[in-house]
Design brief:
There is one protein chain. The N and C termini lie far apart (62 Å). This protein has 2 domains: 252 residues, B-lactam Antibiotic, Isopenicillin N Synthase, Chain (Jelly Rolls), CATH 2.60.120.330; 344 residues, B-lactam Antibiotic, Isopenicillin N Synthase, Chain (Jelly Rolls, Sandwich). It has 614 residues and is of the alpha+beta class. The chain has 11 helices and 32 strands. A hairpin with a 6-residue loop joins β26 and β27. The longest helix is centred in the first third of the chain and has 26 residues. The strands form 9 sheets. It has an 8-stranded mixed beta sheet. Strands 1-4-11-6-9 form a 5-stranded antiparallel beta sheet. The protein binds fe (ii) ion (FE2) (2 copies). The site of one fe (ii) ion has 4 residues, from loops. This is Isopenicillin N synthase. Keywords: Iron, Metal-binding, Vitamin C. Pfam families: 2OG-FeII_Oxy, DIOX_N.
C-alpha cells in the first residue's frame, strides 16, 4: 500500500471523489507523509523524561497543484462530522455533549490517503494487517472496491464492510476504549487486496492534543467499576508508535494493554511501579557491557604472565569506570557448586507458601525467606532467601549512631531440601575466592597494592540472596527489583538463561539489558567502592524486569565489609587537587538502617551514600 499523510487543524480536505479522480489522473503518489495541524505540536521523543516539544509540518507534492487545497478543505469538512460524532458518543454515555471537546484543542489529528494497488497474490498479502486504531475516532471514506474487514466481537469472525455509496465508516479507537473504561471497545480490523482492482481510501484520525493524559473518565468509574487503565500521555504514546514505524524492531508496538490495570487478584497495586519506572517498550541488549576473560589470572600452574595480568587489570579498571558493570568468564569458580545451590534454590522456592513462611524473616531475625521485598517502597515481584556467610554475623544492634551495642545475625535454614544448607555454604566459600580476587584486581587498577581492601573483610557482613521471580501477569507494570544501587563493596551475580537484569548506561541513562552469558558472572561496583575510590568508579543503577511466561532465578553474592568499617575515600586517592568527596560513615549503621526500612514502610528515601557527600 502507498499512502500520503496529512495532519489537521488548518489543513482540511475536500471530499473524496474529486481527489480520487485526481489520483487516477496522476497515477500513484509516492510514500510521502504529512502531519495535519500546521504545525502539529508533539513531544520530541517518546522518552517520558524528555519534556522537549517539536513541530510536524506537512509536505506537499508539486503535482497535482490542487492537492493541498482539497486536502485542507476536506479536513475542515470531516472535522465537523468527527466532533459531532464525539458529542453523540458523549451523550450515549450519559455525559454532556461537549465532554470531549477540550481534548481536541491543539489536536494531533491526521488524514491519510491510501492507495492499494492490485496485488498478484491477494491470498498472501494484506493491504493493512490486523490492528486497532490508537487514536480517538476514525472516519473512513472507502471507494466502491471494498476490502475492509472488521473482527466481530461476538465470535472473532472477520466481516467484510460492504461499500455503501456516500457512507462513512466510523470506528472507536483505543482512546475511547480507555476513556469509557471499556464500555466501548476499539476493534481489530484489516484490509484485503484483490488481484484486479486498485483501491483508494481516506481515513481521518481524530486525535487529541499531545499533552492529553488519557485515562478512564472520572464520571464513568466508581467503586464497583474501578479504573481499568493507568493514565498515559497521548503524545508519548504516539511518538513511540511513530518511532517503531522507522526502527523495525522485533518488539511489540506500544499498546494500551501496557497501561491496563491488573484485574483483581492479578497484580496487587503494591507492586505497581510509578509510570516513570515502567519498562521501555524497546529492549536494548547490551553488547556494550564488557565481558572479561579471567583465564590469565586463574591459570592452574600459577605461572602467570605479568603482561596478561596487566591486561586484565586494565580491562577491569575501564569497565568499572565506564559501566560500573561487567561480566567475567573463565573465573575459576567450580560450576558444580553453582549447579548445587541453583538446584537447592529451585526446590526450596517450589515449596508451599506455608512451608517457606516458617522461616520468614521479621524485625527480629532479618535472615531467611521473604516475599514482600520492597525497593524504594514499591513491592518487588519476587521471593527471596537471605543468608550471611559469617556464622554468626556481627552487626550494630540499631542504626542509632549513639547506640554502641552489637548483635548477632544467625542464618535460618529450611528443613527441605536437606542439602540446602551445605549447598549454600559451599557456594559461599567458592564465590568468596572470586570476589576477593576481583577486589585485588580492582585495587591494582587503582594503582594500589593488591591486598589494599583485604583488611575490611575480616568479620565481613557479606550476604547471599537467592532470588526467585515468578512469571508476572502484568510485566509492564511491575518490576522484579525496582531501580537501585547496591550498597556494599562488590556484587557477584549468577543469573539464569531467562535474563531480565537491566543496567542504566552511564553515557546516556538508557536501560541496557544484560544478556545472559552461559557460566558467566555479572559483577558490579557497589556504593562502598564508589566512596573508597572517591568517585573514580561508580555504583550504577540497575533493576530486574519480569516476564509473563518464565520464572527466573538469580543468586547475588554481596561482598560487604565488617560492620565497624568506617567507609571513606582512600587516603592514597585524595590530594589537595582532588579532595575527599564523602565524609566517613559507619558501614554497620548504614546496613542496619537499610534493613530497618524494609520493615517499616517509611515514606522516606532509603539511606544513600549521597547523604554523606561533601
Ligand atoms: Fe485502522
Ligand atoms: Fe542490585
Amino acid at each position: 500500500m502507498e499512502w500520503y499523510w496529512i495532519s489537521s487543524e488548518r489543513l482540511r480536505l475536500l471530499l473524496g471523489n474529486s481527489l480520487l479522480c485526481l489520483w487516477r489522473k496522476r497515477g500513484r503518489l509516492g510514500g510521502m507523509k504529512k502531519a495535519l495541524e500546521e504545525p502539529t505540536l508533539v513531544p520530541a521523543s517518546p522518552d517520558p523524561e524528555d519534556k522537549e516539544e517539536t513541530e510536524w509540518y506537512n509536505q506537499w507534492p508539486e503535482h497535482p497543484p490542487e492537492l493541498r487545497e482539497v486536502c485542507e478543505e476536506y479536513a475542515r469538512e470531516v472535522e465537523k462530522l468527527a466532533l459531532k460524532l464525539m458529542g453523540l458518543i458523549a451523550l450515549s454515555l450519559g455525559l454532556p455533549e461537549n465532554r470531549f471537546s477540550s481534548y481536541f484543542k491543539d489536536q494531533t489529528t491526521s488524514v491519510r490517503l491510501n492507495h492499494y494497488p492490485a496485488c498478484p497474490s491477494p491470498q498472501l498479502a494484506l493491504g493493512v494487517g490486523r490492528h486497532k486504531d490508537g487514536g480517538a475516532l476514525t472516519v473512513l471514506a472507502q471507494d466502491d472496491v471494498g476490502g475492509l474487514e472488521v473482527r466481530r466481537k461476538t465470535d472473532g469472525a472477520w466481516i467484510r464492510v460492504k461499500p455503501t455509496p456516500n457512507a462513512y465508516i466510523i470506528n472507536v479507537g483505543d482512546i475511547i476504549q480507555v476513556w469509557t473504561n471499556e464500555k466501548y471497545q476499539s476493534v481489530e480490523h484489516r484490509v484485503m487486496v484483490n488481484s484486479e482492482k486498485e483501491r483508494f481510501s481516506i481515513p481521518y484520525f481524530l486525535n487529541p492534543s499531545h499533552y492529553t493524559i488519557i485515562k478512564p473518565l472520572e464520571e464513568l468509574i466508581h467503586e464497583q467499576n474501578l479504573a481499568k487503565y493507568r493514565p498515559y500521555s497521548w503524545g508519548k504514546f504516539m511518538t513511540n508508535r511513530k518511532l517503531s514505524n522507522f526502527k523495525k524492531l522485533n518488539v511489540e508496538n506500544i499498546q494500551i494493554h501496557h497501561f491496563r490495570s491488573p484485574d483483581m487478584g492479578e497484580v496487587d497495586p503494591a507492586f505497581i511501579q510509578d509510570p516513570d519506572h515502567w519498562p521501555k517498550f524497546f529492549i536494548i541488549e547490551g553488547e556494550g557491557i564488557p565481558l572479561i576473560d579471567l583465564s590469565p589470572i586463574i591459570s592452574p600452574d600459577s605461572i602467570t604472565d605479568p603482561k596478561a595480568i596487566e591486561g586484565v587489570v586494565r580491562e577491569i579498571g575501564s569497565a568499572c569506570k565506564g559501566w560500573g558493570f561487567f561480566q567475567v568468564i573463565n573465573h575459576g569458580v567450580q560450576l558444580d557448586k553453582l549447579r548445587n545451590i541453583e538446584a537447592a534454590a529451585r526446590k526450596f522456592f517450589a515449596l508451599p507458601l506455608e512451608e517457606k513462611r516458617k522461616i520468614r524473616r521479621d524485625e527480629k531475625s532479618v535472615l531467611g525467606y521473604f516475599d514482600c521485598e520492597r525497593t524504594k517502597n514499591v513491592r518487588d515481584w519476587k521471593e527471596v532467601f537471605d543468608l550471611t556467610v559469617e556464622e554468626p554475623t556481627l552487626v550494630p544492634a540499631s542504626p542509632d549512631p549513639e547506640d554502641k551495642e552489637e548483635t548477632e545475625w544467625h542464618n535460618r535454614w529450611p528443613e527441605y531440601p536437606p542439602e540446602f544448607r551445605e549447598a549454600c555454604e559451599e557456594y559461599a566459600q567458592e564465590i568468596e575466592k572470586l570476589a576477593m580476587r576481583l577486589m585485588g584486581l580492582i585495587a591494582l587498577s587503582l594503582g594500589l597494592p593488591e591486598n589494599r581492601f583485604s583488611r575490611y573483610f575480616k568479620d565481613q557482613t557479606t550476604s547471599i540472596t537467592l532470588n526467585y521471580y515468578p512469571p508476572c501477569p502484568s510485566p509492564q507494570l511491575a518490576l522484579g527489583v525496582g531501580p537501585h544501587k547496591d550498597g556494599g563493596a562488590l556484587t557477584v551475580l549468577a543469573q539464569d538463561e531467562v535474563g531480565g537484569l537491566e543496567v542504566k548506561r552511564k553515557t546516556d541513562g538508557e536501560w541496557i539489558r544484560v544478556k545472559p552469558t552461559p557460566n558467566a558472572y555479572v559483577i558490579n561496583v557497589g556504593d562502598g567502592l564508589q566512596v573508597w575510590s572517591n568517585d573514580i568508579y561508580h555504583s550504577v543503577e540497575h533493576r530486574a524486569m519480569v516476564n509473563s511466561e518464565k520464572e527466573r532465578f538469580s543468586i547475588a553474592y554481596s561482598l560487604k565489609p565488617s560492620h565497624y568499617t568506617l567507609i571513606k575515600p582512600l587516603e592514597e586517592l585524595i590530594s589537595e587537587e582532588n579532595p575527599a568527596k564523602y565524609r566517613p560513615y559507619n558501614w554497620g549503621k548504614f546496613l542496619t538502617h537499610r534493613k530497618l526500612t524494609n520493615f517499616k514502610k517509611l515514606n522516606v528515601e532509603n539511606i544513600q551514600i549521597h547523604h554523606f557527600r561533601l
